[in-house]
């Protein structure tokens, strides 16, 4: 199962801002995603799908605890997911601010998790902090 925040290819080719610039009224087009990861396919808004991905992976204790057990690569995976989430903010404005606030509370404000990440992959933790700073500078 591959979701929207697993790889950068999805937001790299997201046309919503291009279409917005072409519209005479300047409105952002509505974007919808077909979620076919289960037998019961569902159509969701882009922001709804990013919200679901964030809750089921980036902000889910089962996900990040398993990733932390994965050591160096697991911490890199968490950081990569946050970076790709920022991609959806940048290209489509599709990420709710609570995602960044909750991720900051989980990974940076929580000393235990921050220390575990620093121990396993300090470069990925630094990248995560840079991602938070970039998101903040852009108003997300």
Question: How would you explain this protein's 3D organization?
Answer:
The chain starts with 8 loop residues before the first helix and ends with a helix. The chain has a two-stranded antiparallel sheet with strand order 1-2. The protein has helices at 9-12, 16-22, 46-58, 61-69, 72-92, 97-109, 111-120, 122-137, and strands at residues 32-35, 42-45. With 140 residues, it is mainly alpha-helical.
How would you summarize this macromolecular structure in one to three sentences?
The chain is mainly alpha-helical and 140 residues long.
Q: What percent strand? A: 5-15%
By DSSP (H or I, 4+ residues per run), the number of helices equals 8
Give, in spatial order, the strands making up the sheet with the most strands.
1-2
Given the helix and strand composition, which structural class is it?
A: mainly alpha
Q: Write down how many β-strands occur, each being a DSSP E stretch of 2 or more residues.
A: 2
Give a short account of the largest sheet. 2 strands, antiparallel
Helix content: 55-70%
Q: What are the secondary-structure elements, in order, as H or E? A: HHEEHHHHHH
Mean pLDDT: 90
Question: Which characteristics define this entry?
Answer:
two-stranded antiparallel sheet; globular; mainly alpha; 140 residues
Topology:
Blueprint (H helix, E strand, L loop, with lengths): L8 H4 L3 H7 L9 E4 L6 E4 H13 L2 H9 L2 H21 L4 H13 L1 H10 L1 H16 L3
Antiparallel strand pairs: 1-2
Helix pairs in contact: 4-5, 5-8, 6-7, 7-8
């Amino acid at each position: 199962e591959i979701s929207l925040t697993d790889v950068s290819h999805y937001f790299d080719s997201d046309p919503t801002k291009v279409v917005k610039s072409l519209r005479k009224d300047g409105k952002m087009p509505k974007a919808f995603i077909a979620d076919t990861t289960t037998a019961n396919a569902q159509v969701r808004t882009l922001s709804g799908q990013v919200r679901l991905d964030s809750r089921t992976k980036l902000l889910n204790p089962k996900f990040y605890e398993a990733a932390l057990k994965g050591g160096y690569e697991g911490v890199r995976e968490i950081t990569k997911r946050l970076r790709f989430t920022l991609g959806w903010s940048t290209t489509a404005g599709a990420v709710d601010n609570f995602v960044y606030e909750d991720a900051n509370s989980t990974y940076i404000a929580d000393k235990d998790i921050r220390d575990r990440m620093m121990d396993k992959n300090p470069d990925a933790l630094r990248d995560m902090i840079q991602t938070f700073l970039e998101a903040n500078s852009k108003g997300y």
